[in-house]
Amino acid sequence: MPIEPLSTIALIIRFLKPVTWIPVIWSFLCGAVASGAFGWHDILGAKFLLGMLLTGPLASGTCQMLNDYFDRDLDEINEPNRPIPGGSISLKNATILISIWAVLSVIVGYLIHPLIGLYVVIGIINAHLYSANPIKLKKRLWAGNTIVAVSYLIIPWIAGEIAYNPQVTLASLQPSLIVAGFFTLSSIGTMTINDFKSIEGDRQVGIRTLPVVFGEQRAATIAAVLINLGQLFAAIYMVLIGQPTYGIVVAALILPQFFLQFPLIKEPAQWDVRYNAIAQNFLVAGMLVCAFAIQAARL
């Protein structure tokens, strides 16, 4: 029986995993704000809409499809209802979709700025390094979450800045690189918490995530330390660039996360999803506060 058009569209959307687009879109927005050349009137501009399309359904969607493609054996254990292991999408059709999406991503990135087109290529390479054998960085403890955090935070943040300040230099990018680097450290922690949901499957196929290697409570403790340190460093950096008020706000946003970490560490398997759903709101708010601080420091 042929698939109805709406069912096909819904299936493709599920394959693209929209929930994963949000942090990448947010990082692009933070980079745009930090550039000092972005105003809220730009939200309806073609450049911003192309940026949302790129960092959301196109580039992030491509990387998610690649992850599903290379992780199909693992998903048979952890998420058997995903499109490939569930049989909804064949490997041939998945390959075609991934190829089309990858080309579209690079084209849209290039239209915004040639360097962004290059960053898209780097992001797609990172997705291969993360998921594909024989390298498969997700098996290698710290390396997997680190490369994902870089792709989710540093690359889109710098892309957002370049989009609105195309004459950037390495010196002008330095504040954004430093802040995005600090939040990358925090993001490694949040991704470690995300690993709790697949601990059994990861253990079976030999993927060495922090929960698998160190156990749930120790991994949760490590994740909490990384989350807090990254934001604390960002708050201190706000003071160093002459924006202490912003630094105080970023530091204050750590507090609700800190208190939520006590039940997380006590019962990681019960609190992982709940923690990320609540605590990440404060973390991403801190990212935007830092972007405004960088913008203010440029004036």
From TrEMBL:
Localization terms from the record: Membrane
EC number: 2.5.1.62
Location, primary (coarse class): membrane
Signal sequence region: none
Record has Methyltransferase as a keyword: no
Name of the protein: Chlorophyll synthase
Lineage: Bacteria, Pseudomonadati, Chlorobiota, Chlorobiia, Chlorobiales
Keyword annotations: Cell membrane, Chlorophyll biosynthesis, Membrane, Transferase, Transmembrane, Transmembrane helix
Regions that span the bilayer: 20-41, 96-129, 141-159, 171-193, 219-240, 246-265, 277-297
Topology term for the membrane: Multi-pass membrane protein
A cellular-component GO term for this protein: membrane
UniProt organism field: Chlorobium chlorochromatii (strain CaD3)
InterPro entries: Chl_synth, Prenyltransferase_related, UbiA_prenyltransferase, UbiA_sf
GO biological process: chlorophyll biosynthetic process
Molecular-function GO term, any one: chlorophyll synthetase activity
